[in-house]
Structure formats: structure tokens, C-alpha cells
Amino acid sequence: MNKTLSDFITEFRIEKAKELLKKDELKIYEISTLVGYQTSQYFSQVFKKMTGTYPSEYKDRVGG
Fold this sequence. Notes:
The protein is about 70% helix and about 0% strand. By secondary structure, it is mainly alpha-helical. The chain has one domain: Homeodomain-like (Arc Repressor Mutant, subunit A), CATH 1.10.10.60. It is globular, with a radius of gyration of 11 Å. The N and C termini lie far apart (about 35 Å).
């Protein structure tokens, strides 16, 4: 395992966010707070870096 604790936490947060984005109940800024980010802007940047797409695009694609 070549991951740092920070990498592991980031991956965990993004995976949880992906699960939440599949549901239509929450706004992106609410999801960003739930997974531990203080701003939705930073969350969007990290999400894009990890997945190649922005949370709003992901949500549209998976039908959330």
C-alpha cells in the first residue's frame, strides 16, 4: 500500500460523495459538508482531480 493517510481519507470522502450524488435529495454544497469539506469550491476541485469530472457533471451522468 503506497498511499498516505491523507490519500486514503480523500479517496474515502470522494467515494462517499459519489454515493450521495447518486441520490437526488441533497445539493452539492450539502454533500461537500457531509464528506468533510469546508467549501463546495474546494470539494469540486478535489472531486475533479480524483474523478476527471465535476460533481455536477457526475450527478447529471448518474441520474442523481
